[in-house]
C-alpha cells in the first residue's frame, strides 16, 4: 500500500470513479471541472491530514488551480466530458498501464466530501469557488500579477493556510465564469 502523496492522475481517476457511483451528472465532468474538484480534494486532504494528497504542485492558471500532470492526461477532452481514465506510460517502451487506485480511507473521505458538497456544481461555479478572494489561487495569482512571484505554483502551505476561503462563497450563488477550457499560461 502506497502512502500520500499519490500520483495526481491516480487520484483524478479515483475521483472520477467515485463520482460515477454517487452523482447523477458524473458523465458531465470536464477537464476544467476535474481540475477544480481535484484541487478541492487536495485542500481537504491537506487540512485533515497535514499531508498533500498528490505529488507535484498545482499552478495558478486563468481558470483556477491546475495540476499540469492531470492537465496533460485529460487535455484531449477539451470542453467535453471525460470518458476514459488516465494511464501511466513506460518511457522506454511506450507501453501504457492502468494506474493503481490509492487505498486511503482519508482520501476517500476527502473525495466524497467534495463530491457531495460541490460536485454537482457546473464548472464555472467551481472556478468561482477556486477564485475566492484571498484564497490560495487568488493569493498566488495576485503575487504573479504584481511581479512578486516567479512561479505560478501554489505551495501546499498556502493551500493549508488559505484553503477554507474557497468555501466561504455560497455554492448556490450565480456564476459569472464561463465553462472554458484550461489553457497553459504563456511565460
Structure description:
The chain has 187 residues and is mostly helical. It has one domain. The protein has helices spanning 8-22, 31-49, 68-74, 105-118, 123-130, 136-145, 156-162, and strands spanning 58-61, 64-66, 87-89, 96-98, 153-154. The longest helix is centred in the first third of the chain and has 19 residues, at 31-49. Mean pLDDT is 88; it is low at 169-178.
How many helical stretches? Answer: 7
- Indicate the low-confidence ranges by residue numbers: 169-178
Number of strands: 5
Q: Radius of gyration in whole Å, from Cα?
A: 16 Å
List the strand order in the largest sheet: 2-1-5
Instruction: Quickly count the domains.
Output: 1
The largest sheet, given as strand count, sense and whether it forms a barrel, is: 3 strands, antiparallel
Domain Antitoxin SocA-like Panacea: 34-138
Pfam families: SocA_Panacea (PF13274)
InterPro entries: SocA_Panacea (IPR025272)
Protein name: Antitoxin SocA-like Panacea domain-containing protein
Topology:
Elements: H1 8-22, H2 31-49, E1 58-61, E2 64-66, H3 68-74, E3 87-89, E4 96-98, H4 105-118, H5 123-130, H6 136-145, E5 153-154, H7 156-162
Antiparallel strand pairs: 1-2, 1-5, 3-4
Pfam family, one: SocA_Panacea
Domain Antitoxin SocA-like Panacea: 34-138
Protein name: Antitoxin SocA-like Panacea domain-containing protein
Amino acid at each position: 500500500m502506497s502512502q500520500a502523496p499519490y500520483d495526481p492522475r491516480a487520484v483524478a481517476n479515483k475521483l472520477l470513479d467515485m463520482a460515477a457511483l454517487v452523482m447523477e451528472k458524473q458523465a458531465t465532468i470536464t477537464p476544467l471541472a476535474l481540475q477544480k474538484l481535484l484541487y478541492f480534494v487536495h485542500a481537504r486532504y491537506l487540512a485533515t491530514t497535514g499531508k498533500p494528497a498528490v505529488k507535484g504542485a498545482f499552478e495558478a492558471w486563468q481558470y483556477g488551480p491546475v495540476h499540469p500532470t492531470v492537465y496533460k492526461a485529460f487535455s484531449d477532452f477539451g470542453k467535453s466530458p471525460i470518458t476514459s481514465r488516465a494511464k501511466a506510460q513506460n518511457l522506454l517502451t511506450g507501453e501504457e498501464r492502468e494506474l493503481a487506485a490509492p487505498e486511503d480511507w482519508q482520501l476517500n473521505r476527502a473525495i466524497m466530501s467534495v463530491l457531495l458538497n460541490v460536485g454537482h456544481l457546473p464548472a464555472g461555479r467551481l472556478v468561482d469557488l477556486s477564485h475566492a478572494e484571498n484564497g490560495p489561487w487568488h493569493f498566488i495569482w495576485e503575487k504573479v500579477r504584481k511581479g512578486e512571484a516567479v512561479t505560478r505554483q501554489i505551495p501546499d502551505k498556502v493551500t493549508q493556510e488559505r484553503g477554507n476561503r474557497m468555501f466561504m462563497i455560497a455554492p448556490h450563488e450565480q456564476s459569472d465564469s464561463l465553462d472554458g477550457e484550461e489553457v497553459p499560461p504563456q511565460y
